[in-house]
Each structure stands twice: as structure tokens, then as C-alpha cells.
Amino acid sequence: MTQRIAFVTGGIGGIGSSISQELARKGFKVVAGYYPPEKDLAEKWQAKQREQGLEFELASGDVSSYEDCEKMIKDIESRVGPIDILVNCAGITRDKTFRKMELGHWQAVMATNLNSVFNVTRQVVDGMLERNWGRIINISSVNGQRGQFGQTNYSAAKAGVHGFTMALAQEVARKGITVNTISPGYIATEMTQAIAEEVRQQIVAQIPAGRMGTPEEVAFLVGILCDERAGYITGVNYEINGGLFISF
User: Fold this and answer.
1) What are residue 188's phi and psi, to 5 degrees?
2) Which of 125, 140, 158, 234 supports an S-S bond with 169, CB 3.0-4.6 Å?
């Protein structure tokens, strides 16, 4: 069987890195996406992964720009090959209470966290349909399910991600393409470790599991959903939050 190609947006970030590593270890050819101003950081990341025995291709692009995504995917396809697996992982926060939130805060978060899912997926879905196989995994958030004080923009965008998943899953299911959402809770990354210790303890106290999750735990589930045997799982939202928010 030809080696399948996976593209992870935000692939050098906290959760994105673990997803990229998990898929590489499962035998996929992985392309890690990064924001253009982070070129030096991305190349250092690539070199560090190589030292650990993992080879990655890199792809530069602003996922909030449809035109940039067109160029980025064409570049990947010409250098590496057609994308079989897409993990939409890129995201940002611009937290403010709604009364203090400026239009720019709203637009930036919606563009990077929600519009990007359309911008990138639109470039790869036709190829998946032609080949009758594909895996699309969208990284949402527990706060897209329960809302979060000071995150009307982020919560709205992340809720929209799963609406996108449910609709697209129905359109492409007959062609062997699955579309699923993963909604992490509080995950121990550099971003959450930068939170003041006292605040972190307050967060953990609310989590029934008594700890934050790890990026590797999120990546493990991504790996399962990319498996050949996961073809009957589609349109689903998987919660990885230690019991912080429970639903069915």
C-alpha cells in the first residue's frame, strides 16, 4: 500500500507536535504546517525531531487566508503528494470579556479557528473524494461545548467547528471519508504552564480526573481515528477533558 500523507495545521505547536509525532510513528508521511513568521522556529523544530529519529516535511501558510491555503496545499501536493489525512489543529485565543472585546479580537479568532477549517479542508476534499478515502479531524475545545467566561469569540468558533464536522460528515461518508471532532479540555502545554500556579490549581480542582491532560493523550485518539479500521466512525465529537464536561 502506498504510504498515506497527513497534513497537520499548527503542526509544530503544543498539541500539534504530539499529533505530528503520533502519526509519523504510525507510518504516515507527515507534513507539519506553521505560520509564516515562525519559519526559524519551525526549522528548529524539524531539526529537533530529526534528532529523535522522526522525519517531517514543513509547510508554511496563513490558514486564515483562503488564497494562502490554496498555495500551501498546491506546494505540499507538488513536493510530497496528495493529502489523505487532514488534522485542523491551528488556533489562537484573544480573550476579553464581551464588553471589552474589539472587532479585531473577534475577527482574528473566527478567521484562525473557524474560517481556517473551511479554507484548508476545501483544498483537499476533492482529492479525497476522487480517491474514495480520507480522514478529516478537527480540533475543537471543551469551551466550544460549555462556553467560557471571557471567550465568546473562542467558544463560538470552536462550537462552529463541530457544526462543520457534522454537516460535512454526511456529505462525504459514501466516499470512504470520515470527518470527526476532538474537543480537548485543559491540556498541559507551554501555554497552560504559563498560567499562574494558583490559577492552575484552581483549574485542576474543577477537573474530576485531578490533573490536566497531555498532548500525547489527544494525539493517541487522533491516531485511532486515522486508522484504516476507523472507517465507520464519522460525524462524532470526542471529549478529552478528564470529566470536566460530560455529555452524550
Assistant:
1) -75, 95
2) 234
Asked: is 5-238 a CATH 3.40.50.720 domain? The reply is yes
Q: Any idea which residues carry the catalytic annotation?
A: 154
**H, E, C per residue of the chain:** CCCCEEEECCCCCHHHHHHHHHHHHCCCEEEEEECHHHHHHHHHHHHHHHHCCCCCEEEECCCCCHHHHHHHHHHHHHHCCCCCEEEECCCCCCCCCHHHCCHHHHHHHHHHHHHHHHHHHHHHHHHHHHHCCEEEEEECCCHHHHCCCCCHHHHHHHHHHHHHHHHHHHHHHHHCEEEEEEEECCECCHHHHCCCHHHHHHHHHCCCCCCCECHHHHHHHHHHHCCHHHCCCCCCEEEECCCCCCCC
Per-domain boundaries in the chain: 5-238
- Residue 90 to residue 33: CA distance in whole angstroms: 8
Residue with cell 454526511: 170
Q: Name the pairing type of β-strands 5-8 and 85-88.
A: parallel
Digit-by-digit pLDDT tens for the chain (248 residues) are 689 999 999 999 999 999 999 999 999 999 999 999 999 999 999 999 999 999 999 999 999 999 999 999 999 999 999 999 999 999 999 999 999 999 999 999 999 999 999 999 999 999 999 999 999 999 999 999 999 999 999 999 999 999 999 999 999 999 999 999 999 999 999 878 878 889 889 999 999 999 999 999 999 999 999 999 999 999 999 999 999 999 98
CB 208 within 8 A of CB 174: no
Q: Please, which residues bridge with residue 135 across strands?
A: 85, 178
